[in-house]
Write a structure and sequence with these properties.
By secondary structure, the chain is an alpha+beta fold. The protein has 2 domains: 13-191, Galactose-binding domain-like (Jelly Rolls, Sandwich), CATH 2.60.120.260; 215-446, Rossmann fold (3-Layer(aba) Sandwich). It contains 10 helices and 21 strands. This is Pimeloyl-ACP methyl ester carboxylesterase.
Length: 447
């Protein structure tokens, strides 16, 4: 059961990954072009992403208006006939500096901004995934304001590989950016120590969940199921949560494809999988889909890891199709959708979301309403079902999980061969919050 999280700013994931070569670990602090003094032949800021014209905006350097030096960065809405949107420029710096906290100070000036001005700072890991993020209070930054310094502080995790800084303009108007300063534990970046073990070799970018080299389809009852395969060895089936896709399993695909043949699946009506059915969705149907996928791949027995809805499906597979399941690991699974398992406030939130979706007529909203409705009505797993499970099962949840801890313990207590792990400090999103610890626990269990 996965909650929908909306981010104000675009992630830049693909563009950033494609352009990460600009953040060479051999660069010196003065070469990051933080004052926008270095330009290309087309008056674009050297080593910054987001130079192209987009929706009537331009991103260039401006030699007329600047805080100091010869130039500043300018983001401007130039074509009033095209719809307004959010346009950003992205600077990437290697996170090779030792320290606990980073502060980014930036001078901004803006004129006639209709929506808002933003300034985001993030630290990403080697796989281009966000570890830490912070931004200025963008709600107050609109209208016209002369040059003023703004600051964003953010922790600097040891596993960080890239620092991202992106100013942005939403709506109409102009934004100037100049004289960016980066402080590591209060000292200028030029004085910061370097990590002795920093790996400067960039990882290749793999579009998990949309990878033609690894993807294929299987036709099942009234659906076309998309899956991707990585690695070699014993099969390991990965199942995501409600309203998610293969991409949510990225951290587990990267780690476990080193040891297993990983089959990551978009369950019906989610990701790239198509759903032509009209009846209410059920986890029993999802389990049947997965059996068909395994049959089509000639896999008679597999390990399974299921997160949230995927965990519900995994439990059902374990007692309905026991010969198919070698070992099963579930994260944030439930037996039923009542206040004995899930807080009433979350159930009310889901009901409210369904009402909003049902008021819309587009296909995507209709499908989302079906998925959320399943959250309220499913699953229907009994104690007798759990006692039928023959495979070893690892039952996991976060101490701050939306699934009540007593319910997670109840599931583990009723499975004959089970292990229980409650991750301290983690929520329902432990697989992406505490990646190293989570993957380590799962790896030991599967071995």
């Amino acid at each position: 059961m996965m909650r929908i999280i909306t981010f104000i700013l675009a992630s830049f994931s693909i563009t950033f990954a494609q352009a990460q070569g600009t953040a060479s670990s051999n660069q010196k602090p003065g070469e990051f072009n933080l004052g926008f003094e270095i330009t290309t032949d087309h008056n674009l800021p050297y080593s910054w992403i987001g130079h192209q014209q987009k929706n009537g905006y331009k991103i260039i350097t401006d030699s007329t208006e600047k805080h100091s030096g010869k130039r500043s960065l300018l983001i401007e809405k130039t074509d009033a006939l095209k719809p307004s949107s959010m346009v950003q420029s992205l600077g990437v710096i290697p996170a090779k500096y030792e320290g606990k906290e980073m502060e980014v100070k930036v001078y901004l000036k803006f004129e006639s901004v209709s929506e808002f001005v933003s300034l985001g700072v993030a630290v990403d890991d080697a796989d281009y995934d966000r570890i830490k993020y912070a931004q200025v209070d963008y709600k107050k930054l609109k209208g016209t304001e002369d040059w003023k310094e703004y600051s964003v502080k953010i922790p600097l995790p040891k596993e960080g590989r890239y620092i991202r800084i992106w100013p942005g303009l939403a709506g109409t108007g102009k934004l100037w950016v100049d004289d960016i300063r980066i402080l590591i534990d209060g000292k200028d970046i030029s004085q910061a120590g370097l990590k002795p073990d920093f790996d400067s070799v960039p990882h290749p970018y793999i579009p998990y969940g949309n990878n033609p080299a690894a993807g294929a389809y299987v036709k099942v009852n009234n659906a076309n199921i998309y899956y991707e395969t990585y690695g070699k060895g014993e099969p390991l089936l990965l199942l995501h949560g409600n309203s998610q896709s293969i991409f949510a399993l990225k951290k587990q695909i990267i780690e476990f494809s080193k040891y297993y043949k990983v089959i990551a699946v978009d369950t019906r009506g989610q990701g790239k999988s198509k759903d032509l059915s009209t009846d209410p969705l059920t986890y029993d149907l999802f389990a049947e889909d997965m059996k068909t996928v395994l049959d089509s791949l000639h896999i008679s027995k597999t390990h399974i890891y299921g997160w949230s809805d995927g965990g519900n499906t995994g439990l059902i597979m374990a007692y309905k199709y026991p010969t198919y399941v070698n070992k099963l690991a579930v994260m944030g699974a439930v037996m039923f959708a009542t206040e004995e398992a899930i807080p009433g406030s979350i159930l009310k939130e889901i009901k409210k979301s369904i009402l909003g979706l049902e008021a819309k007529s587009d296909d995507q909203s209709k499908q989302q309403a079906r998925l959320f409705t399943m959250l309220l009505n499913e699953p229907h797993i009994t104690v007798e079902n759990l006692k039928q499970i023959q495979a070893p099962v690892l039952v996991m949840a976060g101490v701050k999980d939306m699934v009540l801890e007593k319910h997670t313990k109840y599931i583990a207590a009723n499975i004959p061969s089970s292990q229980l792990v409650i991750f301290e400090g983690a929520t329902h999103y432990a697989p992406v919050e505490i990646v190293a610890e989570f993957n380590s626990r799962l790896k030991v269990f599967l071995e």
